Amino acid sequence: MPESPIIPAPRPRQPAPALKWGILGPGGIAGRFVDALHRQSDQQVVAVGSRALARAQEFAARHDIPQPVGSPAELVGLDEVDVVYIATPHDSHRAMAELALNAGKHIVVEKPFMMTEDDARSVFELARHNGLFAMEAMWTRYLPQADVLAQILEAELIGEVTYVAADFGFVANYDPKHRLFNPDLGGGALLDAGVYPVSFISSVLGAPRAVHAVGSLAATGVDDHAQLSLSYERALACAVTSLRSALPVTAVIGGTKGRVEVDSPYIRPSGLMLSTKAMWGPDPDAVRWTDTALAEPYDALHYQAIAAAGYIGEGLVESPIHTHQETTAVVGVLEQARRQLGAR
Amino acid sequence: MPESPIIPAPRPRQPAPALKWGILGPGGIAGRFVDALHRQSDQQVVAVGSRALARAQEFAARHDIPQPVGSPAELVGLDEVDVVYIATPHDSHRAMAELALNAGKHIVVEKPFMMTEDDARSVFELARHNGLFAMEAMWTRYLPQADVLAQILEAELIGEVTYVAADFGFVANYDPKHRLFNPDLGGGALLDAGVYPVSFISSVLGAPRAVHAVGSLAATGVDDHAQLSLSYERALACAVTSLRSALPVTAVIGGTKGRVEVDSPYIRPSGLMLSTKAMWGPDPDAVRWTDTALAEPYDALHYQAIAAAGYIGEGLVESPIHTHQETTAVVGVLEQARRQLGAR
Is A177 annotated as catalytic? Predict the structure, then answer.
C-alpha cells in the first residue's frame, strides 16, 4: 500500500518562543514530558516542585532540572517560571491550577483537565480573567497525525462524518489503594483512559447532544469498564474504556464517502489508512500515511509544549485547536458518564 | 506474522446426507446460495418457486435447477423436496416458513429469521411441534473462522471475554421504494445489516441483559443508522449498523488476557489475529490465522447448507451452534432497538 499524495502532509508548526517551564507533580508522565522537551525542543525546564522536597530533588537530578522546590506554592512563586505544567493526581488539578493562575503563571494541565465540568469552567474563567493561557495536556491533539486527519476531514475526503469509534483501556491488577482504583485519587477507567477516546471523538464531531453510558464498577466504587454512546444530529459515536479488557486502541471515522482507520495505538504517533473506494469492507485502493518522525513515541509529548509556547507567544488564552469550551464539554461527558454508572 | 500452532485449526464437519432443496424467493442471495451448493457440495437443488412463474423459470435456467414452479404453495407441496430455503423479502418470512412447515418441510430461512421475537418464537414452536428442522441462514456461524474463534474462546486463550464490538453497514442511495428503505418490505439498516453484528456479539456473549439503541431514521421511517449498547453481567458490547456510513466491517473480542481481531469483512471467510501479550496496543507476538479454503467468498454459503443437512440427518430440530433460543433473542434485540428508535 503506497504512501499517497492524496493524503495531506502535516503542516509545520509556527516557531515558538523558548519558555521557562516549572513542573508540578514529579511522576512518570512528568518525567516523560521533561525528557521529550529536552530532546526535541528548546523549551527550558527550570524548576520542579513537590510537597516532598526529596522527590523533587530526585526528579531534578534524574531529569537535569536546575531547581527543585519543596512546595507547589514555592514553585508557582518562582519569578523565572513562565508556565506551569501540572501532573499531580487528578483530584488536585483544580487546586494546583488555581494556585498557578493566581501567581500569574500560564498552565498546561495533564488529562483529565479537571474532575468535573464545573471545575473546568471555573478554572478556565480564572485564566481568562487573569489573561493567562490554560490548556489540557491532551498531547494527541498536537500530533502530526491529528493535523493530517483534520485536513482529510476539512477536505471532505470521506464526505460527511457519520460515525466515530475509539477505545482505550487495558487490564490492570486490582489494588484498592492504587490511583486507578482509589476514588480519593480520582480513580476509574473513564478519567484515566476514557478521556482519550472521548476527546478523540470530540476532535471530529464536537460536543454530543446526548450521552448514554453502560459499564461496571470496581469494589472501590470507581468505574472499571465503560461504553459510551454519543449521539449527534447526524452521527453516532462509541467510546470504550476499561481497566479489565485488553482493548485494541484503535479509532475509526466513517463517512458518506469513505473512512479513516487510525493505526493502533492511535493515542500516540502512529499512522492512518484512508479508504474512499469501498462502501464496506477492505478497499483495495486504500492509501496510508505513517508517522516516522520520532523513534521514541513519548518524545511526541513535546508537540503540545511547543504548541502551548507558540500560543502563549501570540498572547492567546486558549488552544485554538482544543478550546476551553471543547475541553469543558469533554470533562462534562466523562462526568455525565460517571454519574450514569453511579461511580464514586 | 506467522500462522501459529497456538491457534486451533477449524474442526472438520461431519458428513451430511445429500438432501433435496427447494428454493423460495429467486433473488440475488438465493442465486449465490444455489451456486455455492452446486460448486462446493453434493446437496441437490431440485426446485425453485416464485409467485411469478417467469421469474422462477428464468432463475431455474440460470442456476441449473430442474423444476421451476409458479407459487410458494406448489413449491412446498413437491414430494421430492426435503428442505425449503426461504429467501423472500423479510416481511414474508413468517408466512413462507409456516407454509413450508405445515407441508412437512424442514426450513432454512434467510436473515433476519423473522421481523419480531413473537414471530420467531411462534415459527420455532411450529417446527418443534411438527418435528421439523428450522434454522436461520446466518452463514457466518458455519464458517471455519467461527469454529476457530469458538475454540479460542473455549480454551480461554484471551481469558474472560469482557468486550465485543462489531459493525456492518454501508452507504446506500436513498430510494423510498427500495427494500432497504421501504417499511412495507422490512426495510432499515438493523434488519438488513445490523443482524450480522448483533448475531456476532450473541455468538460470543449470548443474550444481553439490556439493550440501548441510538440512531436515526430515513424519511420513510425506517432506521438508517443505529448503534446498540449491549450490557452483560461482566461484559459490554457495541453493535453498529448503517445505510449512510462506510463502515470497516470489523469485529473485536477483548478479554482479560488478550484479544481477537477478526479481519474485515468478518461476515465472510477472512481471518483473525490473536494477541495475548499486550495489555493494550499492538502485540509484537500476535499470531494470525487466515482462511484460504475458498477463492470465491460467497461459496462459503454452502457451509450452512451442509451443517443443516447434517443436523437434519441426525434428526435435530435446531442448530446446536445457533439454537432457536439464541436466534429468537437476536431477533428480539433488533426489535427492541427498532422500537427504541421509533422505526417503522
Answer: no
